């Protein structure tokens, strides 16, 4: 390796050892002296290696299908409001599972297939994130020999396997694992200037998570018509299919669920959003334990505070890239995706698996163009990639229980770094 390439690899390897080994040693040591049991990323990585996955998404989705196919009851009213099952997806998300149930009748076999899809989605996310990293390195004149590429691929794969939001999605049995793959693959396609394909992939994610529908408006403002057309075609097909399968009233009732969630949110520490932070600050609702059937009570400070932050994040994502003269770049769409995720009132830890492709692309840029900002990117990765449930020891203390929102702060730090990159992007238009 050249001196510059060797130095980058050595620095990243040393950092990986700190994040993967050093941080875990500190967490376990703190747990021992505090008399608490602490999960780490290794807990969920072991689940992945042993193919042990839950049914956090698959159970509510199958229950929703049972109601839709076997009764005339309004699915959201029955499942979400009466049975208190947190089915929070649009009915378009059920189309693939509906088709699978024609092929697989036995529930356990169906669950196995869904869990297998989740595992493959994690592997696919790793693949595309590595491709993004290697492409970004090449774009920034960090040329690798074939033998060097293998070392980089191995190191990058290890760091992604240690990325808590990506691994947690599989461990829970979450549809989010597939969404993480779709968004990361879309970022790769955008980097390759295949914008119509990127639009198709984002639209598939929208069928599961509607807030990414904001990218259609983003594309219209940026006049990215290939991306917008790709999105529109898939959304039209998915929407019409859901209407034909389940009916207009069943589909439109989803708006009531969204309205309900936006007014209350979750106080549970895994909700890494402004809504979660404010609920915990005000001790509004449950903080430490997952309540499968309950939400935090309505609180005006939480509602309006969260709403203000949502508006600010989204307005910044729509406007600032244009003002910076760097609209329609990789960083522009990345900021929009990240902002749409963080602006949600409920943003679970595993929802941030979508940012792994942003870290991968940011490293070569920061290393070559903004070396003084490297420590910010490193700190962001440290906070986002780890599971610091040790912070729950301060849950009962006012103000300082903000430490439970460590992942959210890491995401805001990443957002700041991306804006720094974006404001330099117009000087390096050929970089990505």
Q: Would you write up a description of this structure?
A:
- The protein is mostly helical and 432 residues long.
- It has one domain (3-425).
- The chain contains 20 helices and no strands.
The number of strands is 0
Mean pLDDT: 92
CA-based gyration radius: 21 Å
Shape: globular
Low-pLDDT ranges: none
Question: Level of helix content?
Answer: 55-70%
Per-chain topology:
Layout: H1 3-34, H2 41-49, H3 58-70, H4 75-82, H5 95-103, H6 107-139, H7 146-161, H8 164-172, H9 176-191, H10 195-206, H11 214-222, H12 225-246, H13 248-252, H14 254-264, H15 274-281, H16 300-324, H17 330-342, H18 356-369, H19 374-385, H20 406-425
Any key phrases for this structure?
0% strand, 432 residues, mainly alpha
In short:
The protein is mainly alpha-helical. It has 20 helices and no strands. The mean pLDDT is 92.
């Amino acid at each position: 390796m050249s001196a510059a390439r060797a130095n980058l690899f050595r620095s990243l390897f040393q950092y990986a050892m700190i994040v993967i080994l050093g941080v875990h040693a500190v967490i376990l040591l703190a747990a021992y002296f505090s008399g608490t049991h602490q999960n780490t990323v290794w807990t969920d990585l072991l689940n992945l290696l042993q193919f042990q996955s839950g049914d956090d998404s698959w159970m509510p989705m199958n229950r929703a299908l049972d109601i839709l196919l076997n009764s005339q009851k309004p699915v959201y009213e029955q499942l979400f409001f009466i049975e208190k099952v947190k089915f929070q997806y649009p009915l378009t998300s059920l189309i693939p599972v509906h088709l699978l149930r024609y092929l697989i009748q036995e529930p356990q076999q169906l669950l196995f297939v869904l869990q297998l899809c989740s595992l493959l989605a994690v592997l696919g996310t790793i693949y595309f994130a590595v491709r993004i990293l290697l492409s970004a390195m090449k774009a920034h004149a960090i040329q690798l020999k074939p033998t060097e590429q293998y070392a980089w691929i191995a190191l990058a794969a290890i760091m992604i396997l240690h990325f808590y939001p990506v691994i947690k999605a599989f461990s829970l049995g979450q549809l989010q694992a597939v969404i993480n793959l779709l968004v990361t693959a879309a970022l790769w396609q955008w980097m390759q200037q295949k914008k119509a394909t990127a639009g198709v992939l984002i639209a598939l994610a929208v069928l599961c998570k509607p807030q990414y529908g904001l990218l259609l408006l983003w594309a219209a403002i940026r006049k990215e018509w290939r991306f917008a057309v790709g999105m529109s075609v898939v959304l039209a097909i998915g929407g019409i299919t859901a209407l034909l399968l389940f009916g207009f009233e069943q589909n439109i009732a989803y708006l009531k669920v969204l309205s309900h969630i936006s007014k209350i949110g979750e106080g549970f520490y895994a909700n890494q959003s402004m809504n979660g932070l404010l609920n915990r600050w005000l001790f509004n609702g449950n903080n430490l334990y997952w309540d499968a059937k309950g939400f935090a009570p309505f609180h005006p400070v939480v509602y309006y505070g969260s709403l203000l932050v949502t508006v600010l994040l989204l307005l910044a994502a729509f406007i600032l890239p244009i003002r910076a003269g760097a609209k329609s770049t990789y960083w522009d769409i990345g900021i929009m995706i990240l902002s749409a995720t963080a602006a949600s009132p409920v943003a679970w830890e595993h929802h941030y698996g979508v940012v792994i492709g942003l870290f991968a692309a940011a490293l070569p840029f920061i290393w070559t163009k903004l070396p003084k900002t490297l420590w910010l990117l490193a700190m962001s990765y440290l906070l986002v990639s780890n599971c610091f449930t040790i912070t729950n020891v301060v849950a009962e203390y006012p103000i300082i229980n903000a430490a439970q929102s460590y992942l959210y702060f890491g995401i805001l730090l990443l957002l700041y770094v991306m804006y720094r990159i974006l404001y330099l992007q117009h000087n390096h238009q050929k970089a990505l």
